[in-house]
Amino acid sequence: MTEGEIVTSYLQAKKQKSQVYILAQLNAKDPSTIRKILAKHGIHTAPTRKTPKPRVIICDKCGKPFDAHYSRSKFCDECAKERTVKKKGAVKKRSYDRIKKELACADCGKKFLGDQLAVRCPECKKERKMQQQRERRRRQAEKKWNT
Predict the structure, then answer these.
(1) Per-residue confidence of the chain (147 residues) as pLDDT tens digits?
(2) What's the burial of 76, exposed, middle or buried (CB within 10 Å: 0-12/13-18/19+)?
(3) Which of 5, 20, 33, 117 has the fewest CB atoms in 10 Å of its CB?
(4) Residue 16 exposure: Cα atoms within 13 Å on the Cβ side
(5) Extended beta strands in the chain, E state
(6) Listed residue (85, 78, 115) closest to 100, CA to CA
(7) Strands 101-104 and 111-114
């Protein structure tokens, strides 16, 4: 296609943004080359992908201004790292802080050391888990044959 045909095709298109890429494919050229041809004839097109401008936000914790990577950012990189380390540490502490005490197993009555959520001794717990797996497999097999 000649430059005149490229310009005419662009101006007649309903979706001019996508037309740049279509013309680039038809002419085996780069979209930036098509934009240069159009600019030469007084038609200025912007690339469809816009790079977001960095937003300067003040950190909620330390008060320093920083470039926000996301629109919902509230903390600078340093404060965000501190915050995540504290959160992860707190979660770990909570899970390990459970108090171990002597309990009686619900199945066999044997005494064992466990936290407040434990109901069965380790041996009965293992047996119960295996029993539940067998039951689940049996139900799945029944469903398979009934359908």
Answers:
(1) 788 888 888 888 877 777 777 888 777 788 888 888 888 888 877 665 555 666 888 999 999 998 887 878 888 888 888 887 776 665 555 555 677 889 999 999 999 998 888 999 999 999 999 999 999 999 999 888 876
(2) buried
(3) 117
(4) 13
(5) 55-58, 65-68, 101-104, 111-114
(6) 115
(7) antiparallel
Give the closest residue to 37 by CA, choosing from 1, 88, 72: 1
Residue 66, token pair as written in the block: 């920083």
Within 10 Å of residue 33's Cβ, how many Cβ atoms?
A: 15
Give the H/E segment covering residue 124: helix 122-146
> Which amino acid is residue 45, in one-letter code?
T
Q: What is the DSSP string of 21-42?
A: HHHHHHTT--HHHHHHHHHHTT
What contacts 31, CB < 8 A, 6 or more positions away?
20, 21, 24, 47
Q: How far is CA 81 from the centre of its chain?
A: 18
Which amino acid is present at 57? I
Residues in the chain: 147
